[in-house]
């Protein structure tokens, strides 16, 4: 049995141990070794193809696709071994002199690899292709980098979308009728190599500033799979390769951003950043500007009434009710992890306006709860999953409480005056939530008092994370979620009653790793460590063992399917919550004050895990933790950077001793007089 006790507050470096030289975690890193990625295997060929294996190397050997007019198309289906993103580069050893064409389709999964890509940019607007990329191959040796554009214009002919997120590629000798006479559907094409110029952040072992390793190899692999998924979304914002639905941003053009998905939408959304940002700061904080750029861009587009757009899509007008709160939370996280107080100073007026002007204007003043509906002019608004719900929704209100409390602290630290007001309002909303939305019969929070009775994963989870749920309600709500939302591939949005909102949508079988991260975190906060780990294994284990593997999906649908078929992104940063969950709760390190001036260390020990180690990078230096459980009990080595202050909690048995640097500070339920205080800790 483990219990937690505050044992020490330390200043400066309190252990000489350094984990910096440890390399045992390198084995889990997924990124390709170089930005030029070669295929890993040929899956299949059809019709007249010679020497397809030549595509696996970059030497002078080549594959031949050959076709007489009356024959079926020869094709090669290639596996790159891993979901990847960037520009495909084809090297041709030459071709017949009639400009034979190749057509190329891309997919993240074999299931959706067909005669067209699972998704291309043209599918979202500014259409120049109908799902395949085309190229007319010259007779002489040549190279083609698949970028967006057409070999002829007015009208557009022989077009390609360029830049794809995919694992599988199908190449075949063919031409569209509409592209005649520039390209022929017959002849011979000699392909020497097909490679990918990987454009996103290449997270090799040398680039990781933070890392994690424990006894459980599956958990370790999920951590690095999450890191890779997120890195695939750290890329430049380039007008030809972002979402085509009025998403241009002169401010972001050419800058690194944190996209929502590698394949699509390729637009940075601030809700997604709520998870992806944390993953970024815990792995590659040197790239944190990718989050800052997005937050600043959205701040610059704050509406007159204080509302903040979720993303640049539709010229910053997509109406979401919850995302301005995610902007607040994401700004909080950004400052907390990076210590960038200049950013805080710059956006502070934006923060005040969204919390003090916008949200009060959509509050039902009889209850004090945020209210989505025509009554507050927000009937047409959506949220992270476009759930068709209205009224005083528990999720919006609990997220409001969390955001108010978080930035209230930050305002205090920065010497601003708004903190007390925000904390008061958080308390008012908390009381109203508990008075109006607790369903005593179910033992869980209602989704809303408007519409059919149903209970949701989001509101119940964030009620706990925000501290709004008293401990008995927290335990009860988590029990309810476990019993009523459980699927073989994670926990769903809703219990079965949630299907009444839209009987065809399958809300009671749909799982988002995004919002599940908050449930998993709530389980850790409620000391239900094994339940948190069990859910991680159920959900991430499902994605790890189903195509494309490794990268984490935008959403999981009925029976564990891709919830929107081939359109689903299989590499979505918002699904990487397993990484912050393991670093924050199993390694146990969390910043508690701007830039890690203060942080807490409180490891949660999963059943069967007897050791964990790793580094959490901070602007002051590395925080290193190395803990193990053995016959001598629980032992934790901490490396804390100079100038920081750590609050350390360790699990301790009812009867036993807690020592710090060989000094006993707690024994059999008693704090030892004078110990456990800052002054008594030997600083080495
Ligand atoms: C990593 O560190 C741990 C403990 O700090 C040590 O036992 C292990 O041998 C190290 N591994 C390597 C490869 O350095
Ligand atoms: C990267 O290089 C190492 C050593 O050079 C090799 O063992 C490993 O398989 C390579 N990984 C990939 C993904 O190519
Ligand atoms: C298949 O292609 C090769 C190489 O271009 C060619 O020599 C051969 O005649 C073709 N076979 C058929 C049956 O068309
Ligand atoms: C790969 O793309 C980068 C830009 O992301 C570019 O600078 C580089 O030249 C490209 N490499 C090749 C071989 O095309
Ligand atoms: C609630 O009161 C605020 C002022 O505190 C006001 O701005 C808002 O419009 C009121 N809400 C509604 C729905 O009338
Ligand atoms: C988790 O355990 C800690 C320490 O044992 C306790 O303070 C806290 O209230 C518990 N949390 C919940 C939600 O039960």
Describe this protein with a few key phrases.
684 residues, alpha+beta, Maltose phosphorylase, domain 3, Jelly Rolls, Glycosyltransferase, four-stranded mixed β-sheet, 31 strands, 27% helix, 24% strand, disordered N terminus
Number of helices: 13
Helix amount: 25-40%
CATH class of the largest domain: Mainly Alpha
Instruction: Kindly state the number of beta strands.
Output: 31
Structural class: alpha+beta
Structure write-up:
It is a single chain. The protein is an alpha+beta fold and 684 residues long. It folds into 3 domains: 2-16 and 588-671, Maltose phosphorylase, domain 3, CATH 2.60.420.10; 36-198, Sandwich (Jelly Rolls); 211-305 and 322-587, Glycosyltransferase. Helices cover 27% and strands 24% of the residues. It contains 13 helices and 31 strands. The strands form 9 sheets. Strands 2, 3, 4, 5, 6, 7, 8, 9, 12 and 13 form a 10-stranded antiparallel β-sheet that branches. Strands 1-28-24-23 form a 4-stranded mixed β-sheet. Helix 5 packs parallel to helix 7. The longest helix has 21 residues, at 341-361. Bound molecules: 2-acetamido-2-deoxy-beta-D-glucopyranose (NAG) (6 copies). The site of one 2-acetamido-2-deoxy-beta-D-glucopyranose (NAG) has 4 residues, from loops. One 2-acetamido-2-deoxy-beta-D-glucopyranose binds next to loops.
